[in-house]
Specification:
The protein is about 40% helix and about 5% strand. By secondary structure, the protein is α+β, with helices and mostly antiparallel strands. The relative contact order is 0.14. It binds glutathione. Glutathione binds near residues 109 and 111.
Amino acid sequence: MSKVNDPADNVPAGYEPPAVWSQDGANGGAFASINRPVSGSTHEATLPVGRHPLQLYSLGTPNGQKVTILLEELLAAGHTGAEYDAWRIDIGAGQQFSSGFVAINPNSKIPALVDHSTSPPTALFESGSILFYLAEKFGAFLPTEHYRRAATINWLMWQMGSAPFVGGGFGHFYAYAPIRIKYAIDRYAMETKRQLHVLDTHLASHEYLAGDTYTIADMAVWPWYGGLVQGIYSARTFLGVDDYRHLLRWEAQIGERPAVRRGARVNRTQAPPDRPVAERHDAKDLDP
Ligand SMILES: N[C@@H](CCC(=O)N[C@@H](CS)C(=O)NCC(=O)O)C(=O)O
């Protein structure tokens, strides 16, 4: 690491990284109680299994919403095999570290899915992998023409690689960290605005991310970047989101789809302005 300053300027003042890092108690951030430097389960517990082919273990965060939006879109398009039970995993209470959850996702993060219509059942984790699997399984929202398919996967991968800078970077340091660090906020606000500009520029000349077709790429990007437009982290003004008018057009267009509105309510305890649904086991659970 290059030495660029006086340690007195560090945060906290005088801090120098030790030769070997070790955990120094909880750091006080919003997720301090669940962060650990090791993987694996902390307790024995099996996951519940409902009556539908697809069993989703998730929470209605942006990463969770991507999957429930696709499932609701598939059902709306008539793919009855996409019926699902959505079980709520309380990550604040550490349910992602149960032995049952770790068995299907060794990375201990929502969302995770098990497809019981296959033999043996198929376990899936990483939201992008889940979207890709379901789109292929049902032959929907993933175009077959090479250029449209490539564009869809490009934007899906872009989202998976980019959003951690928004959530783990900007969102963490702006909204969740126990102290406000200008250096960190500047770094991640810059990158988040760059990403918003990437989307805005592309959407100026494309109706959807993959061009003229609504795909899993839109479903992956909408919860995160539409979320910034809707005010997650209360950063809409700070990030100057109103300047990105093509992104705003696309955000509203995707957000008014009935399946998107349904999917965005699943595994949530708050989903303004709509009614949240902590668990979904039947289509009726989401009816008005
Ligand atoms: N790259 C993963 C990220 C998933 C992720 O970060 N999930 C968060 C909630 S949005 C989580 O489960 N956090 C719990 C933890 O870190 O212990 C994906 O897209 O599925």
